[in-house]
């Protein structure tokens, strides 16, 4: 998974969520790696997409389809609520729709 706040030395520049894995970071990484693969067709970018996608699908979904917002370092949901002041329903459907669209385009 991808840590939210971690500098090049592996230290936290801030106390906020630095050691958590956040849903939106993984979703944006899925979109970005798929866009790069679509542009370059380099297998390493497809491998990166699959790695982030598989990790995300294996760890973030909660019962009912929505994703956990925050995972701990071990990949377990840190909180079981599905929304909050910083987690709404924007990133998940948007990112999955973009990925679906890109995959359909690439299949043609």
Secondary-structure blueprint of this entry?
Layout: E1 21-22, H1 23-40, H2 43-59, E2 70-71, H3 91-107
Antiparallel strand pairs: 1-2
- Helix/strand order: EHHEH
The helical percent reads: 40-55%
Question: Could you give the count of β-strands?
Answer: 2
Structural class: mainly alpha
**Uncertain regions: pLDDT < 50 for 5+ in a row?**
none
What is the rounded Rg? 15 Å
Task: Write down the overall mean pLDDT.
Answer: 88
Q: State which percent range the strand residues make up.
A: under 5%
Supply the number of helical segments: 3
Biggest sheet, strands in spatial order? 1-2
Shape: globular
Characterize the largest beta sheet: strand count, sense, and whether it forms a barrel.
2 strands, antiparallel
Question: In angstroms, what separates the terminal alpha carbons?
Answer: 31 Å
Q: How would you explain this protein's 3D organization?
A:
With 108 residues, the protein is mainly alpha-helical. The chain has three helices and two strands; from the N terminus they run βααβα. Strands 1-2 form a two-stranded antiparallel sheet.
Name some characteristics of this structure.
108 residues, mainly alpha, two-stranded antiparallel sheet
Describe the structure concisely for a colleague:
The protein is mainly α. The chain is built from three helices and two strands; from the N terminus they run βααβα.
């Amino acid at each position: 998974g991808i840590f939210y706040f971690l500098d090049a030395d592996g230290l936290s520049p801030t106390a906020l969520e630095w050691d958590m894995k956040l849903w939106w970071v993984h979703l944006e990484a899925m979109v970005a790696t798929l866009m790069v693969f679509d542009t370059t067709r380099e297998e390493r970018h497809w491998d990166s997409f699959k790695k982030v996608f598989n990790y995300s699908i294996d760890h973030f979904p909660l019962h009912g389809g929505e994703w956990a917002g925050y995972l701990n370092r071990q990949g377990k949901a840190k909180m079981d609520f599905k929304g909050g002041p910083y987690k709404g329903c924007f990133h998940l459907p948007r990112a999955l729709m973009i990925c679906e669209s890109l995959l359909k385009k690439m299949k043609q």
